[in-house]
User: Fold this.
Amino acid sequence: MIGPSSDAAELIAHLRSLRSEKNIAGMARFGIVTDGALGISNPDLQRIARAVKRDHSRALGLWASGIREARMLALYTAEPKRLNEDEAGRWANDFNSWEIVDTAADLFVEARLEKTLIPSFAADEREFVRRTAFAMIACAAVHLKKEPDETLLALLPLIEEHATDQRNFVRKAVNWALRNIGKRNRRCHGAALAMAEKLAAATDKTARWIGKDAVRELTSEKILARLKG
Assistant:
């Protein structure tokens, strides 16, 4: 029986016992990297995470296994207050999937590493590391409710700088970051919409796509109604 006292080896053995070839095939259809995957759904992994609780040292061991589900469990059970930049950087070296990136981005923001990791990851040429920077911006815009708006607005030039990155997982994250800043509140909405409109008029096709898609959402009746509320 797994629980808070379970170590990494015990958890990995438990995960292996839940392997599903059918689920592995299904994951591939959603663009999830299935090399080293066991086919366990994220809701099931989250239930396991709740059962075993947070343990940072164990999370490091889970990550080292290279197994997709063990790494997701590591991200769910790492202790944000104990996570440091070096550990986050080492994990980022292994990033090869959008779902790992987006889950890690949430953890990195909770650990309050965004001020240093966002600029350094954005400057990194690796697709999934750069995606992490913009996924972190998207997460920060939602979860850091007490952070001054200026912190998010100061990241708009970074969004503009990388809006011409044509790689699928980067451009979608840049777009996500811009939209989430714009949905934060009325003040952020105005600045983000102005940036979206600027990008929508750009000559670069990737920047145009990012801008037009963001304008579409930020001017939608649903978003405008919520911001007025």
